[in-house]
Amino acid sequence: MSQPLLNERTAVITGGAQGIGYAIAERFVAEGARVVLGDVDGISAEVAAEKLGGLRVARGVRCDVTVESDVDALLATAVDSFGSLDVVVNNAGITRDATMRKMTEEQFDQVINVHLKGTWNGTRKASAIMREQKRGAIVNLSSLSGKVGMVGQTNYSAAKAGIVGLTKAAAKEMAHHGVRVNAIQPGLIRTAMTEAMPQKAWDQKMVEIPMGRAGEVSEIASVALFLASDLSSYMTGTVLEVTGGRFM
């Protein structure tokens, strides 16, 4: 019988208390990983970790990814609790949608800081640990909005496009250290956030999807598992679109 894909490996997932982050954590645990969930809502992170199996396999930590010391503490929890840092998924994110005319500087800065600076913090801090052990996988969550640009999302689209550039540059820097860095670009995924959209906006997006449906969080988790595991051992600097064919 073959071993689980992430047997005895330790993964850190930011924004892990709910949505896509939690789905990734759930899939990783099912494949033998121990996980540390970072979330700006520390209580929710702890509750999520308990649901995943408690202290034997999971920890929940309050972490603001824009704060360097918080990211240091999050990664240290993984090493101290489970003895290694093998996978990091930079997933934490927020939206502050508005047209450019109405968007405030604060709204722009908030989104850039959480998505782009947060992913940079997670990538560089994880890389510093992983290069010492000569192996590791980093998975960054971009978005289809970073490929095509979306009305009302100059902040979000810029941040998600930046994550692609960051991923490719980091992949080049870290390849000879045995550390792989890849990204996922989800399309329309069914989450609490997207289901709160007006029906008209939902219907408009559905028309653009050749497969005729929204994606599920489990379908992003499967791709994250692929990139985190040895199944993708010869892949780095890649961006995988999980979009149902939208905007091919």
Automatic annotation (TrEMBL):
GO terms, molecular function: 3-oxoacyl-[acyl-carrier-protein] reductase (NADPH) activity
Gene3D superfamilies, A to Z: NAD(P)-binding Rossmann-like Domain
Pfam families, per the entry: adh_short_C2
EC number: 1.1.1.100
Keywords, sorted A to Z: Oxidoreductase
Top enzyme category: oxidoreductase
Keyword Zinc: no
Keyword Oxidoreductase included in the entry's annotation: yes
Domain Ketoreductase positions: 9-192
PANTHER family for the chain: 3-OXOACYL-[ACYL-CARRIER-PROTEIN] REDUCTASE, CHLOROPLASTIC, SHORT-CHAIN DEHYDROGENASES/REDUCTASES FAMILY MEMBER
Family: Belongs to the short-chain dehydrogenases/reductases (SDR) family.
Protein name: 3-oxoacyl-ACP reductase FabG
Species of the source: Saccharopolyspora oryzae
Species lineage: Bacteria, Bacillati, Actinomycetota, Actinomycetes, Pseudonocardiales
